[in-house]
Design a protein that fits this description.
Length: 271
């Protein structure tokens, strides 16, 4: 297009359009650069070794482009690949090292701490730590089941820093919730609300603890009393032809009479 044949308004419009195109191209180039940087940081550059076999990790599934918990079966250092089995799906895949992220265990764990536990179903379950030794024993918060897991199957959650109130027989009020004489009215009301919620939570946990103890004692009592008892169906064929099916102890005859001893006869033997 010849510039002499265009009006000044048209030239100004085309110049503005040119600047807008340059800005759009620069914007998309910057966006592509950031996207590539994120993509590189999205995948791990950590190199697995033979010592990582048997550990848990997050593995990238190419089918739906999501990360899932998996178990590392074998590590091939020559090809930089690892054979993993996705937990909960039992699907085995051979993935490059960049598609795996080894789970890092927490630095500190203590009994009574609130954590998330990774089970064989491939899901993280809110739990409470009960014992920490060579492995971690946790109890699921929802179901009450107990599991012993390796350290890499434990992760901290938002409640991990809270000290549990279940194991306390006496409610301990934190220093931040104690009402001081020089506190203004709005601070007093705020502390009272927090203290009320704390007492309610502690009471519910105490009731839950008592309920779990009752259930465990009842199960132990039931198992103890059932030892040595033979389970027989009421529809078992009777031992004699006179017996009837469906009637307990049918065909066995009456029980032997019990000899009654009068008190006078009992005391006369000592006369």
């Amino acid at each position: 297009i010849q510039g002499d044949s265009l009006s000044p308004e048209r030239l100004k419009e085309l110049s503005q359009l040119k600047d807008d195109l340059h800005k759009a191209i620069q914007y998309h180039q910057d966006l592509l650069k950031v996207s590539n940087e994120r993509l590189q940081s999205y995948f791990s550059s950590f190199k697995l070794t033979k010592s990582d076999e048997g550990r848990k990790c997050n593995a990238y599934a190419q089918e739906d482009k999501n990360w899932y918990p998996a178990h590392i079966n074998r590590v091939n250092s020559e090809n930089n690949t690892a054979e993993v089995t996705f937990l909960g799906y039992k699907t085995t895949r051979v993935l490059p090292f960049s598609y795996t992220q080894v789970l890092v265990p927490p630095e500190e764990l203590y009994e009574g701490q609130y954590v998330d536990a990774l089970l064989e179903d491939g899901k993280w379950h809110p739990s409470t730590v009960e014992l920490v030794k060579d492995s971690v024993t946790v109890r699921l918060s929802r179901w009450g089941h107990q599991h012993t897991l390796p350290f890499d199957c434990i992760r901290l959650n938002s409640d991990s820093k809270k000290r549990p109130l279940v194991e306390r027989d006496v409610l301990e009020i934190p220093e931040s919730m104690k009402i001081l004489p020089n506190d203004p009215e709005n601070v007093r009301n705020k502390k009272k609300r927090k203290l009320k919620a704390l007492k309610k939570d502690w009471k519910q946990r105490q009731m839950q603890k008592e309920s779990q103890e009752y259930v465990s004692h009842w199960k132990a009592f039931k198992q103890k009393n059932l030892k040595g008892l033979k389970k027989q169906s009421q529809f078992k064929s009777p031992e004699t032809i006179e017996g009837k099916i469906g009637v307990s102890n049918s065909g066995k005859g009456p029980s032997a009479p019990v000899k009654r001893v009068k008190y006078t006869d009992y005391f006369n033997q000592f006369a």
